[in-house]
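Page 42, continued from yesterday. The earlier attempt failed because a stray header line got pasted into the input along with the sequence. Redoing it now with the clean sequence only.
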Amino acid sequence: MKTYSVIGKSYPAVGALEKATGAARYAADINLPGLLQAKILRSPLPHARILDVDTSAASRLGGVRAVATGRDTPGVKYGGIRGRAEFRDREGLCVDRVRYVGDAVAAVAAVDEDTAEEALQLIRVEYEELPAVFDPLEAMSPGAPRLHEQAEGNISLKFPVQCGNVEEALAGAYHVREDVFTTQPVSHCYLEPRVAVAQVDPSGKLTLWSSTQAPFFVLKDICATLALDEENVRVVKPYVGGGFGGKLDGMDAADFCAALMARMTGCPVKVTCGRDEEFVASRRRHPTRIELRTGVDRHGIILGRDSKAIFDGGAYNSLGQAACIQGGSRQLLPYRMAHMRYLGIRVYTNKPPSGAMRGFGVPQIHFGVEVQLDMLAEDLGLDPAEIRLRNALRTGDRNPNGFYVVSSGFAECIAGASRRIGWSAQRPALPRGEGVGIGCSGFIC
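This time it went through. Structure tokens are written below.
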């Protein structure tokens, strides 16, 4: 038997001692001499043109060191995937338009949080309210208000996948089900809110401490939006008090405002988001409409599936387009399927941006797939665990997009778990519709 130095051994988790003893330093624990506290003014409207921002009264308030609006920035946009310019759709502070309740309009840096909050109340913003759209299907309809000029029909990404001949497979199926499933938005609810601390040294170099999961993404976004060279910016990732994807999407308004105002004032600046901001203005899991048409033979073997997913992307891209892509690519796991067609559509709406959250769009799709598998099993008089066993990918299989399955214990997992919990005895004993606490499903992120 091979001996490994790490595999099969027990080691303390990295950082466990520091967290258990309270010695771990998070972004909120960063306190520097002369530190200013900053707050962000957010839009009260879902869609509006910014006509004027009057910061004169806020600037005169005692203790205020700087007030910034989008007009004080280069106005460079960031966001999206693949580095393509047409996917960059968001500004650090809105310049001429807001697109959801919570969009960042201005920021204030002051000697303490109370003063910064008071200064926010003194800023006067004149808006021209625009028609808003909150449903993806409505957003794609003719005549719907367009959120971004480059996005015709408010579509930020359309992603098709085709494997085999789906129509032929469904035409030859013994039984076909067609269903529509919907999922809701989900907030990450991490214990630590987003925090950013920025400092500029005498040579002009910027250091940013951020509660981020992706410091290199933040670095690139900060440099792009503030027109800085990467060698003059350092992003430090302290301990992070939870993220789950919500702090993975690169720069946030807190990062941008801390960096901007540190450069404006020459003092270190901290931005700490409140819990209300986390719910209203942070990224979230995509609400999704999943349309599935699946055909099986008389034994429950999946012959083909036609699927469409409409992702409510909210006001901006962030990294959310990856959810649309993975919803198709991961559908080919963990079941055998020779024929599959998928169309993923990510749509802009006047709601908080949707982005990364534990699985990047895959849990939504598999929710629909797994519920429909239960329905197909019931239609055919099969046990839900049995229909999954019959369709499980096994070691040596090759799925339609060419992936070779080097190792899979999925079937063994279903069989073993069913045996251990007494599935075949417990499930029939439950009254119909009251099987709370017992069920089976399988998916891969």
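Notes: The mean pLDDT is 94.
Reminder to self: strip header lines before submitting.
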